[in-house]
Amino acid sequence: MHDGRGAVRRRAGARLWLSAGWLTLAGGAALLAPWIAPHDPLAQDLFAGRMPPFWVAGADPAYPLGTDSLGRDVLSRILHGGRIAFLVALIAGLATAVLGATLGLLAGFFRGWVDVAISRLIDIWMAFPPVLFSILLIAVIGPGLWSIIIAIIVIDWTRFARVVRAEAMGQGAMDYVASARVAGRGRISTLVVEILPNVLPTIVVLLTLEMGIAVIVEAILSFVNLSISTDSPTWGGMIAEGRTSVHQAWWVLVLPLIALFLTVLAFSQLGEGLKDRFDPVLR
Fold first, then answer.
1. Coil vs helix vs strand at 249
2. Would you say residue 175 has pLDDT above 80?
3. CB-CB contact of 206 with 122 (8 Å)
4. CA-CA distance, 258 to 264, in Å (whole number)?
């Protein structure tokens, strides 16, 4: 049994280090994109169109990952597209976590009519298909970075609310909560000081998973031209562009797809690793 727990801890540790390493590398590169990108991501050079990456014959050292059909540097566009992906993941993920976790805590701790009202709202909200709902929202409020963030918040808060509600109910039945009440601590104070710290690990795990989902949603909306301006580089937009010329310049499609896949996988594995690390049975 002990060896089994140790193996799980080692796997969780490997997931944490690998995923955190990639997210640190990709996030840092995205943050520093204006300074480390070799070219302007919007600059076009039709004479350098569809140059292959450095490991393919005929490559130009000035374009390490090649160019697209308009001669724009693929590496620079991936780096700048990462800025948008991580920005959406960070802002939308945090806002979604705050909204959903707050409602979940209120429903799980206060019970009664508060729980009934919030639970019914969650049931109604979850009846809408999330992707179609997001496209509808963007179509109504118009494309743009903040429109995407608002759409993600509006759609995904229920994920946090449901899980945190269940956790708050379980924590509310613990002896330490009863002791706090006997000691004269108020209900709001008990919720914030006693229950929230014990629910926080679950919220952190959900946050990492939500950030990966936000990256996917932004890429999907970019793919169908419902994200920010089509001139701005986004991973989804690059994938959509590369799809039309995959036989002539496969790297325009494959390279941003790899960046998207690794980033979403890293967020997912970071969440799984944190879940294993916070699991009280494994601890």
1. coil
2. no
3. no
4. 10
